[in-house]
Design goal:
The chain is α+β, with helices and mostly antiparallel strands. It has one domain. The protein is built from 2 helices and 3 strands; from the N terminus they run αβββα. A hairpin with a 7-residue loop joins β1 and β2. It is elongated. The N and C termini lie far apart (about 35 Å).
């Protein structure tokens, strides 16, 4: 378990399935957050993954921030921060 955030060590996201080494896994996490940044562009919410803490940090324009464990939780948090529904396929 991560002492900083309380999340248990994640076994990896399905998008990291082809990552053979820890370096490739980190690279895939960074690539995933780049895609998330494009999807979230214009929503007032950003995503960040520093590669150290398991999970994705979600940050709103007013400074509210939280760490989510997966994409399902990320979409729910984006909706909560925005105050209305968000469809990631509506880009």
């Amino acid at each position: 378990m991560c002492s900083a955030c309380g999340f248990p060590a994640a076994p990896g996201h399905w998008t990291e399935a082809g990552a053979a080494t820890p370096h490739e896994r980190i690279r895939e996490r960074f690539r995933r957050v780049q895609v998330l940044q494009k999807v979230l562009q214009g929503t007032g919410v950003t995503a960040h993954d520093g590669g150290v803490v398991p999970g994705i940090q979600v940050i709103s324009l007013n400074g509210a921030q939280t760490i989510v464990a997966n994409l399902e939780a990320l979409w729910a948090e984006v909706e909560a921060m925005r105050g209305h529904a968000f469809d990631p396929l509506d880009i």
